[in-house]
Design goal:
Layout (H helix, E strand, L loop, with lengths): L7 H22 L3 H21 L4 H25 L6 E3 L2 E2 L5 H21 L8
Helix pairs in contact: 1-2, 2-3, 3-4
Length: 129
């Protein structure tokens, strides 16, 4: 059986990424705006770096891009609440908070592409999940 091995330096970065992500969401939950806002940068940057480093494995790339879009959506939603424009109307019943659906759906599309299109056409590819 083939194995996908994550280099230790990458794994340490992934673990640190989780710490930043948790602090971002703690800042959001407790309405500690400086903490929540500052933690967006390392959380998002590390998710982009992780996606870039896994670009040779489509399974990893698609899932890591979905995570990056999720963090983007989550961060935008947090900002919209902090800045109090989340409930304002963007268009009719659609509020500015609803715009977070754009990156959420981009993440879903990444995974749909992988599972519905790419993976069935490349069964020989090592699936890392």
């Amino acid at each position: 059986m083939s194995q996908y091995i994550i280099p230790l330096k990458y794994r340490k970065m992934e673990n640190l990424h989780i710490v930043f992500w948790l602090f971002k969401d703690i800042g959001w939950c407790l309405v500690w705006k400086p903490l929540g806002l500052v933690m967006i940068v390392p959380t998002l940057v590390i998710s982009i770096v992780i996606a870039y480093r896994t670009r040779e494995h489509m399974s990893e790339l698609c899932h890591n891009l979905a995570i990056t879009f999720w963090i983007s959506a989550n961060s935008y939603w947090m900002i919209s609440e902090f800045m109090k424009f989340d409930a304002l109307s963007f268009y009719g019943e659609i509020t500015y908070k609803h715009l977070a659906l754009i990156p959420f759906f981009l993440g879903v599309f990444c995974l749909a592409f992988y599972y519905a299109i790419w993976h069935p056409r490349h069964p020989e590819e090592i699936e890392t999940l």
